[in-house]
Write a sequence for this structure.
């Protein structure tokens, strides 16, 4: 059995998600990442004004309309930790696989990644790997912007 949820972004755009009854909020975040290219690490889901933990079961949610808030707070912390390369690799996958992305979200993500290039990760031996991964995310993020411009007819088709 599945349950339908409406996720509303700050722009007012709505995404309908049909989730299996046993799903958790973390599963919803993966679906949002796939549909809107908002990295999971940047997502906060609210239900009735309350922040939902990733481990919360969807069937226990009191409402079927959720609000998506995008925050780069966790991203910044992760990029300044030993997890930087792993997070950057995940961001690169999101950028490469997206068909639609919110320009404001990717501008914020790119700003955090750019800052990451200025501050070396905690593990000095991983500095070059993290910088290479950050550069790849910035390049793929630029491609996301080009895809969006082309989709809205602001660039000639190639």
């Amino acid at each position: 059995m599945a349950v339908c949820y409406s996720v509303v972004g700050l722009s007012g755009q709505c995404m309908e998600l049909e989730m299996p009854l046993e799903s958790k909020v973390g599963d919803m975040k993966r679906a949002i990442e796939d549909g809107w290219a908002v990295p999971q690490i940047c997502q906060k889901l609210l239900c009735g004004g309350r922040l939902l933990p990733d481990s919360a079961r969807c069937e226990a949610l009191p409402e079927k309309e959720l609000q998506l808030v995008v925050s780069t707070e966790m991203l910044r912390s992760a990029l300044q930790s030993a997890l930087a390369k792993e997070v950057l690799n995940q961001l690169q996958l999101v950028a490469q696989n997206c068909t639609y992305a919110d320009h404001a979200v990717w501008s914020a993500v790119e700003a955090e990644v750019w800052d990451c290039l200025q501050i070396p990760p905690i593990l000095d031996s991983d500095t070059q790997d993290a910088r290479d991964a950050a550069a790849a995310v910035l390049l793929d993020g630029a491609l996301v912007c080009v895809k969006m411009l082309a989709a809205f007819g602001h660039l000639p088709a190639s």
User: Anything to note?
Assistant: The chain has a mean pLDDT of 80. Residues 2-70 form a domain with the Ubiquitin-like (UB roll) fold (CATH 3.10.20.90). The helical segments are 25-36, 73-79, 84-97, 103-118, 127-151.
